[in-house]
Design brief:
The chain is built from 11 helices and 8 strands. It is an alpha/beta fold. The chain has a single domain, classed as TIM Barrel, CATH 3.20.20.20. Strands 7-6-5-4-3-2-1-8 form an 8-stranded parallel sheet. Helix 7 links the parallel strand 6 and strand 7. Bound molecules: (6S)-5,6,7,8-tetrahydrofolate. (6S)-5,6,7,8-tetrahydrofolate binds next to strand 1, strand 4 and strand 5.
Length: 298
């Protein structure tokens, strides 16, 4: 069977050009159009990201949820750092058991407020590896944080199968080391939390890179994550090639990159088109080539 990834479409977002203004002005049309487009592109979930929403989140998130679920049945992923908004948002979600809470991090006040809400909703929960001091600094801290989150969620009656661990993708402009750490975590996740799923905000990897080049980093990094069985990813559903990778329709590219991860060096002179793009991009993401804005043309 082809290796697939469930896409969580990221574009309905308070920062986005089309969706941000519509959210602030409470205009349903543009948000509903985007929901239809993301669902048609093959998204398994729609992320509804209102950001921190300090002022009006409690009112905004339920409005966005109702706006979207009145026109599509695609399960929702509620994305906010405002715990009151998250709670209010879940109250109006129709299909709670299929939905995702994005996210619970290893910060005590977030865990205290949101774990009971998730347990009651019986929803899926993204467990973000982000603690009171930010990102874990090494392998042991990452594993320790994951175990802490898993135990707290388990205690509330949330089964491992409902957990989606997010090791947090960092921009390639900060170097390839952090990316390797995230991959290592996914590789060992089943030993840390048997049955648990995973996710990642894929486009973080290309943050700060020229707009027209970002997609190459995102696509190849997704294939790398697939080697370690990533279950879901928060993605730009408007990238048709990326969605094809999610759906298991680019097996030849997956085989190429996974082969390189196993140390099989292809003859680059025989590669062209998408294969050559993935070859060059893998060299950057694995740290064998230092990142520069011209990595694809070298
Ligand atoms: N992990 C988890 N949740 C997350 C993230 C994560 N949620 C937020 C974020 N990271 C993932 N979501 C997005 C949404 C949009 C973009 C990136 C990540 C984005 N937007 C374009 C831009 O800024 O250039 C386009 C905006 C527009 O429409 O104009 O890149 O890591 N659990």
């Amino acid at each position: 069977m082809a290796n697939t990834v469930q896409a969580i479409a990221e574009s309905i977002n308070i920062m986005g050009k089309r969706s941000g203004g519509a959210m602030k002005e409470r205009i349903p049309g543009p948000i509903q159009e985007m929901a239809r487009e993301e669902a048609a592109a093959g998204a398994t979930y729609l992320d509804l990201n209102i950001g921190p929403a300090r002022k009006d989140g409690v009112e905004l998130l339920p409005w966005v949820v109702e706006t979207v679920q009145s026109i599509v049945d695609t399960p929702l992923c509620l994305d906010t750092t405002n715990t009151d908004a998250m709670t209010a948002g879940f109250k109006v979600v129709k299909n709670k058991t299929a939905a995702i809470m994005n996210s619970i991090s290893a910060q005590p006040e977030r865990m205290e407020k949101l774990i009971p809400v998730a347990a009651k909703a019986e929803c899926n929960v993204i467990a973000l590896l982000w603690g009171p001091d930010g990102m874990p600094r090494d392998y042991n801290e990452r594993a320790e944080m994951a175990v802490g989150l898993m135990m707290a969620l388990s205690e509330a009656g949330i089964p491992n199968e409902k957990m989606l661990f997010d090791p947090i993708a960092t921009p390639i402009t900060l170097g390839a080391d952090q990316l390797a750490a995230g991959l290592e975590f996914l590789r060992d996740l089943q030993e840390i939390a048997p049955g648990a799923g995973s996710t990642i905000g894929l486009s973080n990897v290309s943050n700060g890179v020229d707009e027209q080049l970002r997609k190459y980093l995102d696509r190849t990094y997704l294939i790398m994550l697939m080697k370690y069985g990533i279950r879901t990813a928060i993605v730009n559903a408007y990238d048709h090639e990326l969605m094809a990778i999610c759906k298991g329709q680019r097996q030849e590219l997956v085989d190429l990159v996974h082969g390189m991860m196993d140390g099989k060096e292809p003859d680059s002179a025989t590669l062209n088109g998408a294969a050559l793009e993935h070859y060059k991009t893998y060299k950057v993401l694995s740290g064998q080539t230092v990142f520069s804005a011209s990595w694809l043309t070298l």
